[in-house]
Amino acid sequence: MSHSGKQVSRPCHHCKSRSASAPTDTSKIHYEKFWLYRHCSSVQQRDRQAQKAGQLFSGLLAMNVVFLGSAFISSMIFNRVAISLADVWILLSILKVLCLCWIIYYLLGTSRQPHAVLYRDSHAGAIWIRGSVLLFGCCSILLNVFHIGYSTILIHCKSRVEIVFPSIGILFICIQAYFLWHHSKDCIQVQHNFTRCGLMLAIATNLLLWLLAVTNDALHMEIQFQLREVEQRFAGKAPFSRNETALCMCPDMTICKVFQKGYILLYPFNTEYCLVCCSMLYVMWKNVGRRISHDHVPHIKPKFKFQGVVFGPVLGATAVIIGICIFMMYQIQTTGLAPNRQVLVMYYSYYIVLLPLMSVGAVIGTIIHALEKKELDTLKNPTRSLDVILLMGAALGQIGMSYFSIVALVASDPRDLLNSLILSYSVLLIFQNITQNVFIIDGLHRQRFIAATEAKHPGHAGQHVVAAELPGEEETTTSSKEEQTPPGKEEDMKEDQSHNQRRVSMLELGQEIRKASLSYIHSYSHLSWKRRALREISFFLVLCNIMLWVMHTFGGHPVFENGLERSFYGYSTWFVIVNFGLPLGVFYRMHSVGGLLEVYVTA
């Protein structure tokens, strides 16, 4: 081992003598020493080497689990005789049980050890993403309940695994949601390797559940077969021959129809839940063993204030109201077997008007970011890095579906009115996703604006408040003087007193409204035009993305119901494409709302 200049290399564990001049820090929690560390001849940074090795081994564990599960699912798709859906469910049930054992051990053992959680990542586990875990988790539980009820009614032709698998799924969703709600911010400092492996096992399990949900169209095929049989009966044709699929059909029972329709309606929520859990578990995996310095902890936490925006909420609320009306009409018209062509034209026309407005707003916001002289935030932030990756990755779902639609429409008949609208919608959707991603990512990497003017003039707001409160004191004084009346006129003064109290309360209400209006106008006028424009654009995009999330999440799936791409690619192929792209699109809208709120707060 050679020494050059003043730079002295750190002795490894093979050296029998340690440097006596290097004092040991007893308060520092070291990573545990494992195989790769013990057999490394020259370790310059022990903690970092152990961290990298732990991430490597846990990543290899997750990769092998994902490859094994993907092989099972692929074999089930291409050879249903050798590998059935029940075999895949058994494998996933084993993985769920292993994850539950590790989560329970973490909750009762690891997290309760001394010095286990010394740091918590303030950027991880935002309230909106934890709320989405609870929302999608509740919907996934209802989905499993409907699945259990549907399989129980058809127990004569269904496997008992179809009852056991969703039952384990309910327990897995409940415990995992509790774990993520309370411990998503943890930077665990003990049992690093075991914790990393447990988190990666949970990530791999959720990825396999998402992959199975994307590719498994068994129940959808049953419903599709039943719809085709009903259509043929209405047309006067003979029904299909009774094969294995036809023998296991939902009988003419109302409760069975409820289970069937509820399963179809809540199906996208399960895939969404898996994606959100994977993102939160990945942040926890990156935070294992992380030590957060005081420089990384924000001293002033930015808060959401509805001030400085006027046009954004107005335009956004208009888009939301129109969207709700169109969405309700779409849901009513598409309840039948054949969707109405006019409602599809109206649905796509709404998108064609809204998407260019969103794209223009994002482009203007990006230009304003370029004109600003705010420094970039270069501190290490795993949550922000993951946000950027998720925005780019989730946008691939809608972009991929749009390109598939463009190819199908150009190859068929692009001159038709509906086809032209769908083609325009697909092109505009690609452009809108790209421009919005650039705007959000650029805004996330900007440092938070510190209002220097507010710091210089801290007494202005108080002066306004005092000036607004003085008339109220005068009214109180006059009312107290009026109370000193002769005893003979008490009955006559009761009505006057109640009238004066109502008048005073109305005056106080008017003063409160006036005070709030003055404060709002004061804050709006003191914002620079760049900050004002960024807030207007961010708020407008937040409302628009919320509306698009609602339309995609609660049953607005024209890409599957218009029948154009489905007839071009075939039912099974288009089913996989839609179930791959649609949950990513829903996740993208939800994640965009969080990113845009962050841009709004930091503007």
UniProtKB/TrEMBL annotation:
Keywords: Cell membrane, Hydrogen ion transport, Ion channel, Ion transport, Membrane, Transmembrane, Transmembrane helix, Transport
Residue stretches of biased makeup (Basic and acidic residues): 480-499
Membrane topology: Multi-pass membrane protein
Transmembrane annotation, as ranges: 56-77, 89-108, 128-151, 163-181, 193-213, 264-285, 306-330, 350-368, 388-411, 417-440, 537-556, 568-588
Cell compartments where the protein resides: Cell membrane
One of the record's GO molecular function terms: proton channel activity
Coarse class of the protein's main subcellular location: membrane
Keyword tRNA processing attached: no
Source superkingdom: Eukaryota
Region (Disordered): 1-23, 469-500
GO CC terms: plasma membrane
Record InterPro entries: Otopetrin
Family (UniProt): Belongs to the otopetrin family.
Protein name: OTOP3 protein
Species the sequence originates in: Sapayoa aenigma (broad-billed sapayoa)
